[in-house]
Design brief:
Elements: E1 5-9, H1 13-25, E2 29-33, H2 36-44, E3 52-56, H3 64-73, E4 80-84, E5 94-96, H4 101-115
Parallel strand pairs: 1-2, 1-3, 3-4, 4-5
Length: about 120
């Protein structure tokens, strides 16, 4: 079975590294981008395809919600998990920062199962 590929997008280097490390520890192949524009370029380049995206909502250049809109506009159908340190706890489908590795993995597994995408497990 091919390795499941994730794209992690965050302007904070510490968060980017942490999420990458956690996902790789659980068997995912991970690419990273520091903003939505770079992430979109990776997705559009055709050199890599991703099974899911984990993205911060608030970033300079292009935020996570705009990234998701641009992916859809380019007919790239990919599950997106949003992360944020802002907003209400009741807002669904958003992974609240700070989070534990177990919370991240639970959110990723839920995202993949709901979208019918393959998992690393």
């Amino acid at each position: 079975m091919a390795q499941v590929r994730a794209l992690v997008v965050d302007d904070e280097a510490v968060i980017l590294s942490l999420v990458k490390m956690i996902l790789e520890k659980h068997g995912y192949k991970v690419a990273t981008a520091r903003n939505g524009k770079k992430a979109l370029e990776l997705c559009l380049s055709g050199r890599r395809s991703f099974d899911f995206v984990v993205t911060d909502i608030t970033m300079p250049v292009m935020d996570g919600r705009e990234l998701a809109r641009q992916l859809a506009a380019h007919q790239i159908t990919i599950p997106v998990l949003f992360m944020s340190g802002y907003g209400s706890q009741e807002e669904e489908k958003i992974l609240r920062k700070p989070f534990s590795p177990m919370t991240l993995m639970s959110a990723v597994e839920t995202l993949l199962s709901e979208s019918g995408a393959k998992s690393a497990r």
